[in-house]
Write a structure and sequence with these properties.
The chain has 310 residues and is α/β, with parallel strands linked by helices.
């Protein structure tokens, strides 16, 4: 097998990666893998996204099922919305586990319950394969730019094997511990992001109610201790009432429900997260669950009887 120089690295020509789940995050992640020189086998619940990438990426192939993906690629990435989706991909009819072998490296990059990650880990390793839970942070912009933060749980050996793959999609790549720990750290991330959005929402609504220009509020907060990635990436859209989804309310709401359930089981009180989860619920019930998670501000606006956008 020949070698291809890509961004100062050498990759085996036509090294194949199977990619399952081509949504807001998965599609640009798959594109970045192709840019890095990997050959792709693609599967998605709806065929439209597969056809789009087949037209863009020479040499890419479609698979009719997760099992077929596993039969055509030794390294398989799954990037789907929720725990039931991961279970369906892994254990459903023509599921991935059917074709897993001792050569397989399965990397789930979804955000799911730790218990689900451990169940898939056990099934993969029982067949001699390796499994990593590697959820990401950075939203659609990070996925497009290839600058995702990737938190990885699993064995050292599997992490080292997967590192070149991760480097094609992310910038901050950390092996955080054993199986399941990637999902635990992602939960920590989702807590911090949700609470940050809520705090920024309250600040903007408070300032607007007092008659201060929201753009000026953002400018000042961005230059001091209150600055954050949430403020930088979501603030400009929030003050324009623009909530094009990078990460949808309903997905973050799902994550918070998983977190709160796990927290109850392990005895970790999360009082602030619980309140923010209720605000996410309110946004979803109002029919805005498909908006970006920064639309949490609309719940604060409703309570204050004001709209931040001037």
């Amino acid at each position: 097998m020949g070698l291809l120089a890509v961004a100062g690295k050498e990759l085996a020509l036509a090294e194949t990666i199977g990619f399952i789940g081509l949504g807001i995050m998965g599609k640009p992640m798959a594109r970045n893998l192709a840019k890095a020189g990997y050959s792709l086998v693609l599967h998605n619940r709806s065929r439209e996204a597969v056809d789009e990438l087949l037209a863009e990426i020479p040499g890419s192939r479609a698979a009719s099922s997760p099992a077929e993906v596993g039969s055509l690629a030794d390294t398989i990435i799954t990037m789907v919305p929720d725990s039931p989706d991961v279970r369906e991909v892994a254990f459903g009819s023509n599921g991935l586990i059917e074709s897993v072998s001792s050569k397989s490296l399965v990397i789930d990059m979804s955000t799911i319950a730790t218990s689900t990650a451990l169940d898939v880990h056990d099934a993969v390793t029982a067949k001699g394969g390796a499994f990593l839970d590697a959820p990401v942070s950075g939203g659609d912009k990070g996925a497009i730019a290839g600058t995702l933060s990737i938190m990885v749980g699993g064995s050292d050996k599997a992490f080292k094997q997967a590192l070149p793959v991760f480097e094609a999609m992310g910038k901050t790549i950390v092996h955080v511990g054993g199986p399941g720990s990637g999902q635990t750290v992602k939960s920590c991330n989702q807590i911090a992001v949700a609470v940050n959005i809520a705090g920024l929402s309250e600040a903007l609504v408070f300032g607007a109610k007092a008659g201060v220009d929201p753009a000026k509020v953002l400018e000042v907060l961005g230059g001091g201790l209150a600055s954050s990635r949430v403020l930088e990436t979501r603030g400009p859209g929030m003050i324009k009432d623009e909530f094009v989804p990078g990460f949808r309310v309903d997905l973050h709401r799902k994550d918070l429900n998983i977190i709160l359930s796990t927290a109850r089981e392990q005895g970790s009180p999360l009082p602030v997260t619980a309140i923010v989860s209720q605000l996410m619920d309110a946004v979803s019930v109002a029919g805005n669950g498909d908006l970006d998670h920064s639309a949490l501000m609309t719940a604060i606006e409703a309570l204050a009887q004001i709209t931040v956008k001037q």
